[in-house]
Amino acid sequence: MRKGLYLFLGVLIGSTYIGAGAASAQNAKSYVSSTGSDSNPCTFALPCRTFQHGHDQTNTGGELYALDNAADYGALVINRGIAIFSPQDSGATRASISVASGSAITVNAPANATVTLVNLELRGQGTADNGVLFNTGALLQVYGGSYCCFGGAAPNGFGVKFAPSAFSRLLVSGANISGNGTASTGAAVQVNPQSGGAAYVNLREITAYNNAFGLAMDTTGSTNGVNSVIHGGTMQYNRQDGIVAVGGAPIGLLIDDNALLLGNAGFGVRAIGTGVNVRLNQANIVGNGTGVAGVSGGSILSYGNNSIDGNGTNGTPTSTIPLK
Which of 95, 120, 198, 237 fits as disulfide partner to 263, beta carbons 3.0 to 4.6 Å? Predict the structure, then answer.
């Protein structure tokens, strides 16, 4: 009997170490290529073919590299902290994902996970839902890249749809986000925390062109709020507003550093609902249907150093904050 017990324990311990070895055999750095195969181990010498298989072979906190841009690397669901890199940020070199339905990238990561996307090109063929759909995770970072043509009907149609169910952070820097949404719904970026969700958002030098909206913020489904900043960049020639913020929970937004809101058919900036406070610091709001408007208790607060001119109706900030 004792001999049988020792044998059982030996098998159990042995299988535990085998399992641990399999897990540790995943890569700190994985690679995909247009000439790769998903039967490969995703090393530099033997790359995989799809982002999904490369992701699945990468350790939490690891890195996934596309070696070329000659292929569509396929839709991806991210369930861990990971950084994904394309060769360079140009139309000739970005690694791409092209989908006709669903979202190109879906993020369902753990609460402590950071997901980083660098220089990717996501294409929605005019019918797919979203470029990036973020549901869970600590931080989503998007650097460079191009996100176009996600024309899904509401509640989709976004280049980046940030819909956290807990507190999460979003950084988008230097991305070109264009051609998303329908005639009246969708946006380059939507910030839409769900029940229990909250967000810190930083949009830095992005270009949002020819979407339904440039930035759409909506906290009507959340009991918590959003704090956000737009540093520079351009929201131009969108079919509705450059920026619209609709409050249930509070929204704070600072637009600064010579951000340009140009030629949007609706409003340059619109704040809707009590608790929505948009601050303007060195913002340029020009050539829109209406420059600025605070609606239903929403506030547009100016530091008195902006250009609000040449709009169909310029509008007037709710109040001016003295510079100190």
Answer: 237
Q: What confidence score (pLDDT) does residue 323 get?
A: 86
51 φ, ψ (degrees, to nearest 5): -60, -40
Q: Shortest CA distance to 159 belongs to which of 147, 173, 169?
A: 147
Asked whether residue 135 is assigned to any structural domain, the reply reads yes
For 65-104, what is each residue's pLDDT tens digit?
999 998 899 999 999 999 999 987 666 679 999 999 999 9
Cis ω for the linkage preceding 155 (within 30 of 0): yes
Separation CA 323–CA 38 (nearest Å): 58
**56: phi then psi, degrees, rounded to nearest 5:** -65, -20
Ramachandran region of residue 223, left (φ > 0), alpha (ψ -120 to 50) or beta? Answer: alpha
How many CA atoms lie less than 13 Å away from 120 in the CB half-sphere? 30
In a domain, 314, yes or no: yes
Q: What is the mean pLDDT of the chain?
A: 92
Q: Is residue 196 assigned to a domain?
A: yes
Q: Residue 19 phi/psi, 5° resolution?
A: -60, -45
Could you tell me which residues are beta bridge partners of residue 22?
none
d(CA 205, CA 97): 23
Q: Are 176 and 205 in contact (CB under 8 A)?
A: no
Taking Cα atoms as reference points, which of 207, 147, 206, 226 lies closest to residue 181?
147
pTM: 0.91
User: What tokens were used for 36?
Assistant: 């790769």
Domain count, the chain: 1
pLDDT tens digits for range 286-316 = 999 999 999 999 999 999 999 999 999 999 9
86 within 8 A of 120, measured Cβ to Cβ: yes
pLDDT exceeds cutoff 70 at 112? yes
- Tell me how crowded residue 312 is: count the other CB atoms within 10 A of its CB: 11
The bridge status of strand 226-231 relative to strand 58-66 is unpaired
Question: Structural domain of residue 81, as residue ranges?
Answer: 60-320
